[in-house]
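Example with several molecule types.
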Amino acid sequence: MSTLLKRLFVTAIATGLILPFLIVAGVSISAESNISFPPQELSARWYTELLTQRDWLIPIRNSLVIAAFAGLLAVSIALAANYVLWRLKSGFGKLVFALGVGPFMLPPIIIAMGASVFWAEMGWYGRAEATVISHGVFFVTLPLVIIARGFAALSGDVIEASRTMGATPWQTFVKVIFPLVLPYVITGYALVAIISVNEYLISYMVSGFAVETLPIRIFNNLRYGYTPVVASAAMGFALLTIGVLLVLSTITDLLKLLGASRD
Amino acid sequence: MKRALDPHLIGLFPLAMMSVFFLAPLAFMVVVSFYERDPLGFYNVAFVWDNYAKFFSSFYYTVSMRSLWSSSLGAIVVVLLAFPAMYIIVDMSRRWQLFWVILLLSLMCLSEVIIGFAWLILMSESSGIPKFLGWIGLWEDPRSLSPSFGAMLIGFITLGFSLVALMFYPQMAQRDRSIEEAALTLGTPPLRVFTKVVLPNFWSAIISSVVTMFVYFLGVFVMPTMLGRPQDWNMTVIITDKAVGDANMPLGAALSVIMLVFTLIIIGGLMLASRKKGAAS
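Resulting C-alpha cells for the full complex:
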C-alpha cells in the first residue's frame, strides 16, 4: 500500500460521503421550481419559503422543542447513573449503567414499536411529551458513555481534599464534581439534541400523525411529489448539525473524547 | 443533606426511568402481540396465537430472507470499507483526523431521511450521476438509478459507515504498534504487515462490528422505502406498514417480538463467543 493508493482510497470514501450533500446544496440555491442540478440561476427563494411558511415552521418548532427537552432528560438520567456507579463502583451501579446501554443494542424498529404500544395504552399516543420521554430514554447511551469518561478523569485527591475540608457530599458534587464533568455533560446534551432533531422512526410511530417533526415533514413531502424546499430544509439540518459539532470541538477535545489517546 | 445524596436513592431515578420507559414498553409489546386486532381502535384484550401464526407463511418467509440478505451484505461491505479507511486515517495529522471525526459525527447524527434524500437526488436523472454520464457521453439514454437494490445498499453503507468507523477509531488509534514496526524494520512489505499483523489482532473487533451493523441494518426503515423497490423492502418496513398503515398493532408487535428474540440470540451468541475466546487466551 503506497501512500498514493492510501490517499486515493480515503479520498474516494470522503467523496462518496460528501458528494450527495454538495448536490443537495446546489439544488437548494437553484431558482427553478423542479429539482435540477447544476442550477441555471441562483436564488434564496427556497430558504425564504422554509423560514416563512407555516407548514415548515411548525415542524421546525416541534423538532427543536422535543430535542431540547429530550436532551435534558437523557443527560439527567446519564448523570445520575454515572454518579451512582462512581460512588458504588459495583452491583447496583453496574445494573443501572447496563440498563442505559441496552437501547443501543436493539434495532430501532423494536424500540419504536414498543414505545408505540406503550403510549397507546397510556393514552399519550400522539402527544409530543411521549416523543420527548421516548427520545430521552432511548438516546441515553451516548451521554452515559461520554459522562463516564468525565467521571473516569476525576482524580481522587480533589474529592478527598473537599471531604477533609468538611464539605457535604452535596457540596462536593456541586462545587467540585459537577464543574469537572460539565464539558462532558454539555457534549452529551448536544449530541442527544442533534440526534433527536434528526430522528424519524420513533417520532413517527409514537406521535407522527399528530406532531409533525422536520424529518417526518421531509419524508411526507418526498412521498407526494417534492419541491426544492426539501433541499433547503436538508441543508439547514446539515449545517445545524455540523455547526453544533464545530462548536463542541472548541469546548472539548473531540479526538480525546472518542478515545484517540489513552487517558 | 447527606441523606439526599444517598447513591441508592439517586440510582432509583435512572433505574425507574429505564424500567418504566424502556423495559416496560418491550414487555408490554410482548403482551400486545397476543391481543386481537380491533378494527375500530388499537386492540382487544385476548390471548391468541394468530399473530404469530401469520408469520409462518411464504410472504413473511420471503421478507425475512431478503431482510437477512440485505443486512448481512450491507454489514460486510461497510466493515470492509471502514476498517482499512480507519487504519489509514489514524495515521494522518491531527488536523485531518479532526476533519474526519467531525465528518463522521455529522453523518452519524444526520437523519436517515436527509441522507436518503441526498442519494435520491444524486441518483436521479434530472440532477445526479446519470445526467453527468449522459452529458459526457458515457451513457446514451440516462435513467434514474433509484429505486433499486443497489441504491438501497448504498444508502445502508452511508448510514452505517460513520458508526463502524467511530467504533474502530479508539481501538485503532491506541493499538500497540511495536510488532508492526518490528516487521517493517525487518523489511516486510506494508501490505503483508497489514494482513499478517494488523488483521489477526482485530479479528474479534471486526466480527463484532459486522454483527452490530447487521442488527442495525435489520431495523432500518427510511432507506428501503426511499431508495429500494417494494420487492427490496425489509421486515422493518412491513412492521411499520402493518402497525401504522393498517393500524394492526398486535401483528406489528408479534413481528417485532420475533425480531427481538432473533436479535437477542445473535447478541447472546456473540457475547458467549467472546467470553469463550477471553477464557481461552
